[in-house]
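[User] Once you have settled down, look closely at the record that follows, and write a paragraph about the fold.
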Amino acid sequence: MSGKRFFTPIRLITLGLLGVGAIAVGVIAYMNHDADSGPVSPAVAGIYGQDVPPATVPEQLLPGLVLLTPHQLALTPLVDGFQSPCGTVRGGFVYDAQPFNTHNAQRGGHHTGCDINGIGGENSDLGLPVHAAARGLVVYCGEPSADWGKVVVLAHRLPGDSRIIQTLYAHLDKSIVRQGQLVGRGEPIGTIGTANGNYLAHLHFEAISSICTEAGQPAYVQQGTMNRLDPQQLIAAHPAPAVPDPYESIRRLRLREASLQQPAAPAAEMPAGTVPVKPSQFL
């Protein structure tokens, strides 16, 4: 009896589990080998199979490409029209020195915005005010690079389809707004600059169909215009009314009303033994 081995139920269960584990390891190894042997179809790969191949991305994505938050999208105001960001409301006393989509061989591509200059040329417009082209929400205010200088980006909601677009104001000498601020059409947001002396004074002005802040993206592209819109066509398609935008005044009044509706802070307790005194008794 000592030379014979019996398979007890416990031993049989153990051997069965080991066999199932070996089969599972083999199946996983086969699946991994199959996955490595060729591309996975989008239906199997899910969202990862839908990624754009790097070779088809038009430009390198730079810091500043940040998706707007739901809070920012909710705060983005509906515009009543667009006006020129410099000069008069209709663009008097300024001109477009380098229109949208102009090919610039020296800079290596097509211009993604327009360069607005004062009619005096050179640096005659240095320090002149830059106005919000439409009422909007400040979604970017900073300096993405030395070549860009100070940049302000506003988000707007178009009338009709409520599509979100943005206007970008670059090469500023000064910016006088802060991120998260709501501004009215025509409200000053900064002054014309030279981007730290890199250019003669002018405003680089862009219109962008996107829900990402794209400050710092290239101002010249080799093909197409990406998601940039022609700023002059945008102003022509949605012209601002002849009257000033009441948005900012109304907003300030509402903020003032809200502050007046706040309950008054309780008066501080006077120390014991203090005698109340009216200032009028000393007049």
Summary: The CA atoms of residues 122 and 241 lie 32 Å apart. The longest strand covers residues 164-175. The chain has five helices and 15 strands. The longest helix spans residues 9-36.
